[in-house]
């Protein structure tokens, strides 16, 4: 299920663009954050995901090869619609994620938790998220 557009999508995208970070080079500090998130949560996958208009791009990633996905594979695009945090303990039991290709396909993601990355203007630009292959 594709997420609805954020109610302030134009402002949110302008905020994201103002950081000039999409498609930027790998940076050790961001890599350290996702490695720490995976270790603390004891999960194989952790991402810093920035939700653009038609894709989510990963500034840093652990346990996940693609550098971006389309929004039909994005749970983070649902998370940015929440106040602070989204946890989906079993993706097969949540209508937003039951048909997500990351869940139903080869990757087999079962669990997702994402904390919104919110700019000073209040716009959510992405998430720090963790995922697991078991609920």
What is the radius of gyration? 14 Å
| Physical arrangement of strands within the biggest beta sheet | 3-2-1-6-5-4
| Residue runs with pLDDT of under 50 for 5 or more positions | none
Structural class by helix and strand composition? alpha+beta
- Range of helix content: 10-25%
Count of helical stretches: 4
Q: What fraction strand? A: 25-35%
Write up what this structure looks like.
The two termini are 19 Å apart. This protein has helices at 9-18, 28-41, 76-79, 101-104, and strands at 45-51, 55-62, 68-70, 85-88, 111-118, 124-132. The mean pLDDT is 96. It contains 4 helices and 6 strands; from the N terminus they run ααβββαβαββ. With 135 residues, the protein is an alpha+beta fold. It is 24% helix and 29% strand. Strands 3-2-1-6-5-4 form a 6-stranded antiparallel β-sheet. The protein is globular and about 35 Å long.
Q: How are the secondary structure elements laid out?
A:
Elements: H1 9-18, H2 28-41, E1 45-51, E2 55-62, E3 68-70, H3 76-79, E4 85-88, H4 101-104, E5 111-118, E6 124-132
Antiparallel strand pairs: 1-2, 1-6, 2-3, 4-5, 5-6
Main attributes of the structure:
135 residues; alpha+beta; 4 helices
């Amino acid at each position: 299920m594709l997420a609805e557009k954020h109610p302030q999508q134009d402002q949110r995208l302008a905020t994201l663009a103002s950081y000039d970070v999409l498609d930027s080079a790998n940076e050790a500090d961001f890599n350290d954050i996702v490695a720490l998130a995976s270790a603390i949560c004891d999960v194989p996958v952790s991402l810093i995901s920035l939700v653009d208009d038609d894709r989510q791009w990963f500034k840093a990633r652990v346990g996940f090869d693609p550098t971006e996905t389309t929004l039909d594979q994005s749970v983070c695009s649902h998370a940015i619609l929440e106040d602070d945090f989204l946890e989906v303990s079993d993706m097969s039991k949540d209508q937003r994620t039951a048909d997500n290709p990351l869940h139903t396909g080869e990757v087999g993601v079962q669990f997702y938790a994402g904390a919104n990355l919110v700019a000073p203007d209040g716009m959510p630009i992405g998430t720090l998220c963790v995922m697991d292959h078991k609920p």
